[in-house]
Amino acid sequence: MDHSALFQKFVAFTADLHEVSHELTRGVKSEDVTPVQYKILEYMMVSQPVTPSEIADCVDLSLPNTSRELRKLMEKGLCEKATDDADRRRQLFRLSTDGQAMMGRVFAQAQQGFEQRIAGLTEDELKEVEAALELLQRKVFQ
Amino acid sequence: MDHSALFQKFVAFTADLHEVSHELTRGVKSEDVTPVQYKILEYMMVSQPVTPSEIADCVDLSLPNTSRELRKLMEKGLCEKATDDADRRRQLFRLSTDGQAMMGRVFAQAQQGFEQRIAGLTEDELKEVEAALELLQRKVFQ
DNA sequence: CCATTTACTTATCTTTTGATAACAAAAAGG
DNA sequence: CCTTTTTGTTATCAAAAGATAAGTAAATGG
């Protein structure tokens, strides 16, 4: 198989997915968070609680800037901080009730957009989609 | 099929792909362009020539800000401007020789990273990957 | 103990990005 | 023609994000 052609398809695919996911989360701008702050909240949504170091790693932010954004998120009442009892240097951050609610709304809206996209598919086609997602993750993303 | 479960998988998939593509284009930071400028160059790479309006639409930038970034890219010698003869209001932008060369390097590096990821796959598996990409584009991205 | 390392914070400054107003030139359409 | 619309530019200001220096407190490891 021609690896270059496959790479081209991968690039086009990536561009398309990026556009779709951007469209699905478009509504977030109405809420009062910046893009970087949203990325932090999204990360908290999937792995809670998290330390500033973990966030800095995964969101690709310096530790001082992570600290600043976390402070802003706390001021907005979207997340909470607690000291780790096992290691009192570590700070554990999690979404507050409001933060959970907000991210819940965002995900619900994204899911609704996703549902519309797959609305016309049959059961068999849905299974194909699921299989394709799993195959790409397994073979390409590792 | 459970649509919520499928959506969860889609979210995880999107996050993974985002991470991979970020890793593949990591080396661009060494070149002297900002993230927004890189997006413009990437867009020019796939569709040339482009007008400021088209860029503004696709890269999600206001027209004044697009104009500013295009000026910076021209100052850096990465793209060129020419007036459309058919409609002299329209400005046609394309990559300069340097710009082509730079994006060529970026794509070559990304392709190299991609090759490593698929290095262990058999011919049949590569065909599966290609089929999965096409299926998702057809059924979900439209 | 005590020096060193780790985890985080605060403060400050620069760069990048976003938003808006005002303008110019070409085209479109009576 | 002459008004209106389209396309793009320039200028300016504010907000967001990046970078770096300096400092604190807790843990680690002789």
Automatic annotation (TrEMBL), chains A, B:
Keywords: DNA-binding
Domain HTH marR-type: from-to ranges: 3-141
Coiled-coil residue spans: none
Name the UniProt record assigns to this protein: HTH marR-type domain-containing protein
Transmembrane stretches, start-end: none
Entry-linked InterPro entries: ArsR-like_HTH, HTH_MarR-typ, MarR/SlyA-like, WH-like_DNA-bd_sf, WH_DNA-bd_sf
Annotated organism of origin: Saccharibacillus endophyticus
Pfam assignment, any one: MarR_2
